[in-house]
Design goal:
This protein is of the alpha+beta class. It has 5 helices and 7 strands; from the N terminus they run H-E-E-H-E-E-H-E-H-H-E-E.
Length: 149
């Protein structure tokens, strides 16, 4: 997911824009959830709005970890930051919330370059892109994923 200065255009297209992680069936490992990722190459092709698409990947009935490579503009410059998201919806089972909460630090340590952490407890918090913009830089953020706020 991290930006590399020497990446070829083909390598950039294969880079992940967003990815979801879940617990394995035996609840002992954190794994990439199959089919729950967005590639940079998908944007403009099969994905019009990467943030809205990411929100749709989140399950309503269980917790997840997510990494989202946010592209945004402030009044001064364009930026790209990696956001770690802990999705713990109110409808998730209590046991699941407890396991995900206690495993959160372990998965975060595995990733380098995380600039922001965001715990989200419901769709109402995550659907409005202004909430993410607030996490990224508050009122100085003017666009997120090319869409004005």
């Amino acid at each position: 997911m991290k930006v590399r200065k020497s990446s070829s255009p083909e390598d950039v297209k294969k880079r992940k824009k967003a990815v979801l992680f879940c617990l394995s069936e035996d609840k002992k490992q954190i794994v990439v959830e199959p089919g729950k990722q967005i590639l940079v190459g998908d944007i403009g092709d099969t994905v019009d709005d990467p943030y809205a698409c990411f929100v749709k990947l989140l399950p309503l009935g269980d917790c997840r970890y997510g990494l989202y490579d946010a592209t945004y503009e402030t009044r001064e410059s364009k930026k790209e930051d990696l956001v770690f998201i802990f999705w713990a919806p109110e409808g998730a089972p209590l046991r699941s919330k407890m396991i995900y909460a206690t495993s959160k630090d372990a998965i975060k340590k595995k990733f380098t370059g995380i600039k922001h952490e965001w715990q989200v407890n419901g769709l109402d918090e995550v659907q409005d892109r202004a909430t993410l913009a607030e996490k990224l830089g508050g009122s100085v953020v003017v666009t997120l994923e090319g869409k004005a706020l």
